[in-house]
Write a structure and sequence with these properties.
Helices cover 29% and strands 28% of the residues. The protein is an alpha+beta fold and 407 residues long. It folds into 4 domains: 89 residues, Rossmann fold (3-Layer(aba) Sandwich), CATH 3.40.50; 65 residues, 2-Layer Sandwich (Dna Ligase, domain 1); 115 residues, 2-Layer Sandwich (D-amino Acid Aminotransferase, Chain A, domain 1), CATH 3.30.470; 79 residues, Phosphoribosylglycinamide synthetase, C-terminal domain (Glycinamide Ribonucleotide Synthetase, Chain A, domain 4), CATH 3.90.600.10. The chain is built from 12 helices and 20 strands.
Protein backbone atom coordinates (compact mmCIF):
# COMPACT_ATOMS: atom_id res chain seq x y z
CA UNK A 1 0.00 0.00 0.00
CA UNK A 2 0.97 3.65 -0.33
CA UNK A 3 1.50 5.40 3.00
CA UNK A 4 1.48 9.10 3.91
CA UNK A 5 3.34 10.66 6.84
CA UNK A 6 2.07 14.13 7.75
CA UNK A 7 4.66 16.65 8.93
CA UNK A 8 7.88 18.35 7.98
CA UNK A 9 10.53 17.58 10.60
CA UNK A 10 13.10 15.07 11.72
CA UNK A 11 10.47 12.84 13.33
CA UNK A 12 8.60 12.54 10.04
CA UNK A 13 11.87 11.77 8.26
CA UNK A 14 12.56 8.98 10.77
CA UNK A 15 9.05 7.60 10.40
CA UNK A 16 9.36 7.58 6.62
CA UNK A 17 12.73 5.82 6.81
CA UNK A 18 11.30 3.11 9.07
CA UNK A 19 8.17 2.65 6.95
CA UNK A 20 10.21 2.35 3.75
CA UNK A 21 11.62 -0.93 5.13
CA UNK A 22 8.16 -2.45 5.57
CA UNK A 23 6.88 -5.26 3.39
CA UNK A 24 3.45 -3.62 3.62
CA UNK A 25 4.56 -0.30 2.12
CA UNK A 26 4.89 0.40 -1.57
CA UNK A 27 5.51 4.15 -1.76
CA UNK A 28 5.99 6.42 1.24
CA UNK A 29 4.85 10.05 0.88
CA UNK A 30 5.61 12.88 3.30
CA UNK A 31 3.47 16.01 3.37
CA UNK A 32 4.52 18.73 3.34
CA UNK A 33 7.95 17.26 4.02
CA UNK A 34 11.07 19.34 3.52
CA UNK A 35 13.96 19.66 1.07
CA UNK A 36 16.13 17.20 2.96
CA UNK A 37 13.41 14.57 3.06
CA UNK A 38 12.86 15.07 -0.67
CA UNK A 39 16.63 14.74 -1.30
CA UNK A 40 16.48 11.45 0.63
CA UNK A 41 14.22 9.99 -2.04
CA UNK A 42 10.74 10.45 -0.60
CA UNK A 43 7.78 11.83 -2.53
CA UNK A 44 6.40 15.04 -1.06
CA UNK A 45 3.49 17.37 -1.70
CA UNK A 46 1.72 20.24 0.02
CA UNK A 47 -1.92 20.93 0.89
CA UNK A 48 -3.97 23.76 2.39
CA UNK A 49 -6.78 21.90 4.12
CA UNK A 50 -8.19 18.41 4.64
CA UNK A 51 -10.39 18.74 1.55
CA UNK A 52 -7.34 19.27 -0.67
CA UNK A 53 -5.48 16.54 1.21
CA UNK A 54 -8.34 14.14 0.42
CA UNK A 55 -7.87 14.86 -3.29
CA UNK A 56 -4.13 14.15 -3.01
CA UNK A 57 -4.78 10.95 -1.06
CA UNK A 58 -7.14 9.74 -3.79
CA UNK A 59 -4.76 10.76 -6.59
CA UNK A 60 -1.77 8.94 -5.05
CA UNK A 61 -3.86 5.92 -3.97
CA UNK A 62 -2.80 6.33 -0.33
CA UNK A 63 -4.41 3.88 2.10
CA UNK A 64 -2.71 4.77 5.40
CA UNK A 65 -2.20 8.25 6.89
CA UNK A 66 0.11 8.73 9.88
CA UNK A 67 0.02 12.21 11.44
CA UNK A 68 3.47 13.02 12.77
CA UNK A 69 2.56 16.04 14.89
CA UNK A 70 -0.19 16.88 17.33
CA UNK A 71 -1.64 19.83 15.37
CA UNK A 72 -3.32 17.53 12.81
CA UNK A 73 -4.80 15.42 15.61
CA UNK A 74 -6.11 18.50 17.43
CA UNK A 75 -8.04 19.33 14.24
CA UNK A 76 -9.68 15.88 14.43
CA UNK A 77 -8.08 14.41 11.33
CA UNK A 78 -8.81 10.97 12.79
CA UNK A 79 -12.53 11.53 12.14
CA UNK A 80 -12.16 13.07 8.67
CA UNK A 81 -13.48 10.80 5.91
CA UNK A 82 -10.69 10.34 3.36
CA UNK A 83 -12.31 7.23 1.89
CA UNK A 84 -13.83 3.97 3.07
CA UNK A 85 -10.52 2.16 2.58
CA UNK A 86 -8.23 4.87 4.05
CA UNK A 87 -7.04 4.49 7.64
CA UNK A 88 -5.82 7.40 9.80
CA UNK A 89 -3.58 6.20 12.62
CA UNK A 90 -4.16 8.61 15.47
CA UNK A 91 -6.58 9.53 18.27
CA UNK A 92 -9.63 11.76 18.02
CA UNK A 93 -9.43 15.43 18.96
CA UNK A 94 -11.18 14.61 22.23
CA UNK A 95 -8.52 12.12 23.29
CA UNK A 96 -5.78 14.30 21.84
CA UNK A 97 -6.49 16.52 24.84
CA UNK A 98 -4.10 14.24 26.67
CA UNK A 99 -1.55 16.52 25.01
CA UNK A 100 -3.47 19.58 23.89
CA UNK A 101 -4.92 20.40 27.33
CA UNK A 102 -2.74 19.97 30.41
CA UNK A 103 -5.80 20.46 32.66
CA UNK A 104 -7.82 17.78 30.81
CA UNK A 105 -4.91 15.34 31.03
CA UNK A 106 -4.44 16.02 34.75
CA UNK A 107 -8.13 15.39 35.41
CA UNK A 108 -7.97 12.06 33.56
CA UNK A 109 -4.83 11.06 35.47
CA UNK A 110 -6.57 11.85 38.76
CA UNK A 111 -9.60 9.77 37.75
CA UNK A 112 -7.34 6.87 36.75
CA UNK A 113 -5.18 7.06 39.88
CA UNK A 114 -2.00 7.71 37.88
CA UNK A 115 0.79 9.28 39.99
CA UNK A 116 1.62 12.84 38.97
CA UNK A 117 2.61 16.17 40.52
CA UNK A 118 0.03 18.06 42.57
CA UNK A 119 -1.50 20.80 40.43
CA UNK A 120 -3.80 23.80 40.21
CA UNK A 121 -5.59 24.60 36.90
CA UNK A 122 -6.26 28.30 36.30
CA UNK A 123 -8.39 30.09 33.71
CA UNK A 124 -6.71 33.51 33.59
CA UNK A 125 -3.53 35.40 34.36
CA UNK A 126 -5.19 36.97 37.41
CA UNK A 127 -6.22 33.55 38.75
CA UNK A 128 -2.72 32.16 38.14
CA UNK A 129 -1.11 35.04 40.00
CA UNK A 130 -3.59 34.63 42.86
CA UNK A 131 -2.71 30.94 43.03
CA UNK A 132 0.98 31.81 43.26
CA UNK A 133 0.19 34.09 46.21
CA UNK A 134 -2.10 31.67 48.05
CA UNK A 135 -0.08 28.43 47.87
CA UNK A 136 3.27 27.42 49.33
CA UNK A 137 5.77 27.20 46.46
CA UNK A 138 8.99 27.25 48.48
CA UNK A 139 10.15 24.04 46.77
CA UNK A 140 9.59 25.57 43.34
CA UNK A 141 6.73 25.68 40.85
CA UNK A 142 6.27 24.63 37.23
CA UNK A 143 4.18 26.92 35.02
CA UNK A 144 2.57 25.10 32.09
CA UNK A 145 0.51 26.69 29.35
CA UNK A 146 -2.64 24.63 29.06
CA UNK A 147 -2.70 24.35 25.27
CA UNK A 148 -0.24 23.54 22.49
CA UNK A 149 3.10 25.34 22.64
CA UNK A 150 5.49 23.15 20.59
CA UNK A 151 7.32 22.08 23.74
CA UNK A 152 8.09 25.66 24.75
CA UNK A 153 5.14 26.37 27.06
CA UNK A 154 6.73 25.11 30.27
CA UNK A 155 8.88 27.10 32.68
CA UNK A 156 10.41 25.63 35.84
CA UNK A 157 10.64 28.38 38.46
CA UNK A 158 12.63 28.52 41.69
CA UNK A 159 10.75 31.49 43.15
CA UNK A 160 7.39 33.26 43.03
CA UNK A 161 8.99 36.21 41.25
CA UNK A 162 10.24 33.91 38.47
CA UNK A 163 6.81 32.29 38.28
CA UNK A 164 4.97 35.60 37.97
CA UNK A 165 7.28 36.62 35.16
CA UNK A 166 6.73 33.27 33.43
CA UNK A 167 2.93 33.60 33.65
CA UNK A 168 3.01 37.01 32.02
CA UNK A 169 5.44 35.95 29.27
CA UNK A 170 3.68 32.67 28.44
CA UNK A 171 0.23 34.30 28.39
CA UNK A 172 1.34 36.63 25.61
CA UNK A 173 2.44 33.64 23.52
CA UNK A 174 0.08 30.78 24.30
CA UNK A 175 -3.01 32.17 26.04
CA UNK A 176 -4.14 32.74 29.61
CA UNK A 177 -5.01 29.19 30.73
CA UNK A 178 -2.38 27.49 32.89
CA UNK A 179 -1.66 24.52 35.07
CA UNK A 180 0.57 25.28 38.07
CA UNK A 181 2.40 22.23 39.39
CA UNK A 182 4.68 21.32 42.24
CA UNK A 183 8.30 21.01 41.11
CA UNK A 184 9.40 17.37 40.99
CA UNK A 185 13.00 16.21 41.23
CA UNK A 186 14.67 13.25 39.59
CA UNK A 187 15.81 11.88 36.23
CA UNK A 188 13.36 11.90 33.31
CA UNK A 189 12.60 9.44 30.53
CA UNK A 190 9.92 8.73 27.94
CA UNK A 191 8.04 5.48 27.33
CA UNK A 192 6.04 4.74 24.19
CA UNK A 193 3.21 2.50 23.11
CA UNK A 194 1.18 1.71 19.99
CA UNK A 195 -2.55 1.48 20.64
CA UNK A 196 -5.52 -0.06 18.82
CA UNK A 197 -8.92 0.55 20.41
CA UNK A 198 -7.41 0.83 23.91
CA UNK A 199 -5.27 -2.29 23.48
CA UNK A 200 -1.62 -1.28 23.77
CA UNK A 201 1.74 -2.78 22.92
CA UNK A 202 4.83 -1.25 24.49
CA UNK A 203 7.15 0.47 22.05
CA UNK A 204 10.43 1.16 23.82
CA UNK A 205 11.90 4.04 25.79
CA UNK A 206 14.23 7.01 25.34
CA UNK A 207 15.74 9.91 27.25
CA UNK A 208 15.48 13.34 25.65
CA UNK A 209 17.08 16.70 26.41
CA UNK A 210 14.55 19.53 26.38
CA UNK A 211 16.64 22.48 27.54
CA UNK A 212 18.65 24.54 25.07
CA UNK A 213 21.80 23.88 27.11
CA UNK A 214 22.79 22.24 30.37
CA UNK A 215 22.64 25.61 32.18
CA UNK A 216 20.08 25.73 35.00
CA UNK A 217 18.23 28.73 33.55
CA UNK A 218 18.30 27.55 29.95
CA UNK A 219 14.93 27.77 28.11
CA UNK A 220 12.89 24.74 27.05
CA UNK A 221 12.91 23.76 23.38
CA UNK A 222 11.20 21.22 21.18
CA UNK A 223 14.13 18.91 21.96
CA UNK A 224 17.90 19.06 21.52
CA UNK A 225 18.68 15.36 21.37
CA UNK A 226 17.92 11.93 22.80
CA UNK A 227 19.33 8.49 23.41
CA UNK A 228 17.67 5.09 23.39
CA UNK A 229 16.92 2.86 25.08
CA UNK A 230 16.63 4.26 28.58
CA UNK A 231 18.55 1.45 30.29
CA UNK A 232 17.37 2.30 33.82
CA UNK A 233 13.64 2.56 33.00
CA UNK A 234 11.39 -0.10 34.56
CA UNK A 235 8.85 -0.86 31.83
CA UNK A 236 6.83 -3.12 34.11
CA UNK A 237 6.28 -0.18 36.47
CA UNK A 238 5.22 2.03 33.56
CA UNK A 239 2.75 -0.64 32.50
CA UNK A 240 1.34 -1.01 36.02
CA UNK A 241 1.23 2.66 37.01
CA UNK A 242 0.40 4.29 33.67
CA UNK A 243 -0.68 2.24 30.67
CA UNK A 244 -3.08 -0.17 32.38
CA UNK A 245 -5.00 2.37 34.52
CA UNK A 246 -4.99 4.94 31.70
CA UNK A 247 -6.64 2.76 29.07
CA UNK A 248 -8.97 1.25 31.65
CA UNK A 249 -10.19 4.76 32.50
CA UNK A 250 -10.51 5.76 28.84
CA UNK A 251 -12.59 2.64 28.18
CA UNK A 252 -14.72 3.33 31.26
CA UNK A 253 -15.57 6.74 29.82
CA UNK A 254 -16.81 5.10 26.63
CA UNK A 255 -13.88 6.32 24.54
CA UNK A 256 -11.47 4.45 22.29
CA UNK A 257 -7.83 5.41 21.73
CA UNK A 258 -5.89 4.46 18.58
CA UNK A 259 -2.46 5.78 17.65
CA UNK A 260 0.95 6.39 19.12
CA UNK A 261 1.17 7.57 22.71
CA UNK A 262 4.11 8.51 24.83
CA UNK A 263 4.41 9.44 28.45
CA UNK A 264 7.09 11.61 29.98
CA UNK A 265 8.01 10.39 33.45
CA UNK A 266 10.24 11.39 36.33
CA UNK A 267 11.74 8.91 38.80
CA UNK A 268 11.27 10.76 42.09
CA UNK A 269 12.09 9.72 45.64
CA UNK A 270 8.44 8.65 45.87
CA UNK A 271 8.57 6.57 42.69
CA UNK A 272 7.51 7.22 39.10
CA UNK A 273 5.36 10.27 38.39
CA UNK A 274 3.90 11.40 35.06
CA UNK A 275 5.04 14.77 33.73
CA UNK A 276 3.08 14.78 30.48
CA UNK A 277 1.45 12.77 27.72
CA UNK A 278 1.99 13.27 23.99
CA UNK A 279 -0.37 11.73 21.45
CA UNK A 280 2.32 10.94 18.86
CA UNK A 281 5.95 9.91 18.69
CA UNK A 282 8.33 12.46 20.14
CA UNK A 283 10.75 14.61 18.21
CA UNK A 284 13.69 13.95 18.71
CA UNK A 285 12.92 10.65 20.50
CA UNK A 286 11.68 9.04 17.27
CA UNK A 287 15.04 9.71 15.61
CA UNK A 288 16.77 7.78 18.41
CA UNK A 289 14.19 5.02 18.84
CA UNK A 290 13.24 4.00 15.30
CA UNK A 291 16.78 3.20 14.03
CA UNK A 292 16.89 0.44 16.69
CA UNK A 293 13.62 -1.15 15.53
CA UNK A 294 14.05 -4.60 13.97
CA UNK A 295 10.39 -5.54 13.55
CA UNK A 296 8.09 -4.06 10.89
CA UNK A 297 6.74 -0.66 11.97
CA UNK A 298 3.86 -0.70 9.51
CA UNK A 299 2.77 -4.13 10.72
CA UNK A 300 2.41 -2.73 14.24
CA UNK A 301 0.48 0.30 12.98
CA UNK A 302 -1.85 -1.95 11.00
CA UNK A 303 -2.28 -4.20 14.04
CA UNK A 304 -1.22 -7.39 12.28
CA UNK A 305 1.87 -7.96 14.45
CA UNK A 306 1.90 -7.46 18.22
CA UNK A 307 5.52 -8.50 18.79
CA UNK A 308 7.73 -5.41 18.81
CA UNK A 309 11.44 -6.12 18.53
CA UNK A 310 14.27 -3.66 19.06
CA UNK A 311 17.97 -4.47 18.76
CA UNK A 312 18.69 -5.17 22.43
CA UNK A 313 22.44 -5.29 21.80
CA UNK A 314 22.74 -1.71 20.57
CA UNK A 315 22.15 1.87 21.67
CA UNK A 316 21.55 5.06 19.73
CA UNK A 317 22.32 8.75 20.27
CA UNK A 318 20.61 11.54 18.34
CA UNK A 319 21.97 15.11 18.37
CA UNK A 320 20.00 18.08 17.00
CA UNK A 321 21.76 21.01 15.31
CA UNK A 322 19.92 24.32 15.64
CA UNK A 323 20.02 27.92 14.49
CA UNK A 324 22.05 29.95 17.04
CA UNK A 325 18.95 32.05 17.89
CA UNK A 326 16.81 29.00 18.69
CA UNK A 327 14.34 28.89 20.45
CA UNK A 328 13.96 32.68 20.28
CA UNK A 329 12.76 34.66 17.27
CA UNK A 330 14.71 37.11 15.14
CA UNK A 331 16.13 34.35 13.02
CA UNK A 332 18.39 35.34 10.13
CA UNK A 333 18.74 32.86 7.28
CA UNK A 334 22.24 31.93 6.18
CA UNK A 335 23.98 29.53 3.81
CA UNK A 336 25.53 26.37 5.21
CA UNK A 337 28.45 24.65 3.52
CA UNK A 338 27.95 20.88 3.80
CA UNK A 339 29.68 17.85 2.28
CA UNK A 340 27.91 15.95 -0.50
CA UNK A 341 27.14 13.00 1.79
CA UNK A 342 25.84 13.54 5.30
CA UNK A 343 25.69 9.89 6.32
CA UNK A 344 28.28 7.29 7.27
CA UNK A 345 28.26 3.57 8.03
CA UNK A 346 26.96 4.17 11.55
CA UNK A 347 25.39 7.65 11.36
CA UNK A 348 22.14 8.71 9.67
CA UNK A 349 20.98 12.32 9.07
CA UNK A 350 17.43 13.48 9.72
CA UNK A 351 16.32 16.76 8.17
CA UNK A 352 14.16 19.43 9.81
CA UNK A 353 14.20 23.04 8.58
CA UNK A 354 17.25 22.89 6.27
CA UNK A 355 16.38 24.29 2.83
CA UNK A 356 17.91 23.44 -0.55
CA UNK A 357 18.35 26.22 -3.10
CA UNK A 358 20.21 26.40 -6.39
CA UNK A 359 23.47 27.43 -4.78
CA UNK A 360 23.37 25.13 -1.76
CA UNK A 361 21.80 24.52 1.65
CA UNK A 362 20.31 27.33 3.74
CA UNK A 363 19.36 27.58 7.41
CA UNK A 364 16.08 29.49 7.94
CA UNK A 365 15.94 28.99 11.71
CA UNK A 366 14.78 26.57 14.39
CA UNK A 367 15.95 22.97 14.52
CA UNK A 368 17.91 22.41 11.33
CA UNK A 369 18.93 18.75 11.14
CA UNK A 370 20.02 15.96 13.42
CA UNK A 371 22.31 12.96 13.36
CA UNK A 372 21.74 9.53 14.87
CA UNK A 373 24.51 7.04 15.56
CA UNK A 374 23.83 3.39 16.42
CA UNK A 375 26.56 1.53 18.28
CA UNK A 376 27.34 -1.53 20.35
CA UNK A 377 27.13 0.67 23.44
CA UNK A 378 25.89 4.10 24.43
CA UNK A 379 29.49 5.29 24.68
CA UNK A 380 30.27 4.04 21.16
CA UNK A 381 27.16 5.64 19.67
CA UNK A 382 27.90 8.91 21.43
CA UNK A 383 31.51 8.95 20.22
CA UNK A 384 30.48 8.18 16.64
CA UNK A 385 27.79 10.85 16.41
CA UNK A 386 29.94 13.66 17.77
CA UNK A 387 32.92 12.70 15.61
CA UNK A 388 30.59 12.67 12.60
CA UNK A 389 29.17 16.10 13.42
CA UNK A 390 32.71 17.45 13.68
CA UNK A 391 33.54 16.04 10.23
CA UNK A 392 30.33 17.42 8.69
CA UNK A 393 30.72 20.93 10.09
CA UNK A 394 34.49 21.05 9.46
CA UNK A 395 35.05 23.83 11.95
CA UNK A 396 31.93 25.78 10.99
CA UNK A 397 30.43 27.22 14.19
CA UNK A 398 27.27 28.71 12.64
CA UNK A 399 25.07 25.92 14.05
CA UNK A 400 24.64 25.13 17.73
CA UNK A 401 24.16 21.82 19.52
CA UNK A 402 24.44 20.33 22.97
CA UNK A 403 27.61 18.38 23.66
CA UNK A 404 26.25 16.30 26.55
CA UNK A 405 23.65 14.08 24.83
CA UNK A 406 24.05 10.56 26.19
CA UNK A 407 26.00 11.48 29.31
Amino acid sequence: MNVLVLGSGGREHALAQALRKSKYCNQVFVSPGNDGIRESGFLTFGFDDFSELKEKVFHHQIKLIIPGGEAYLAKDIAKYHFGSDVKVFGPTAELSQLETSKAWAKKLMTQAGIPTASFFPTESVIEALQCLDSQDWREGVVIKSDGLASGKGVVVCASSDEARLAVNELSSLYGEKFVLEEKLRGPEFSAFCIVHNNEFIEFGSACDYKKRSSDVGSPNTGGMGAYAPCFWADQSEVRRLVWEPLFSQIKEQGLSYTGFLYVGLMLTSEGLKVIEFNVRLGDPEAQALLPLLESDLCSHILGVDQEVKFDSQKSSVHVVLVHPDYPKGGKKSFKLDLPLSLKSETVEPYFSSLQKKNDGWFVPGGRVLGFTAVGESLVRARTDVYEHISQVLRGNTSLSFREDIGL
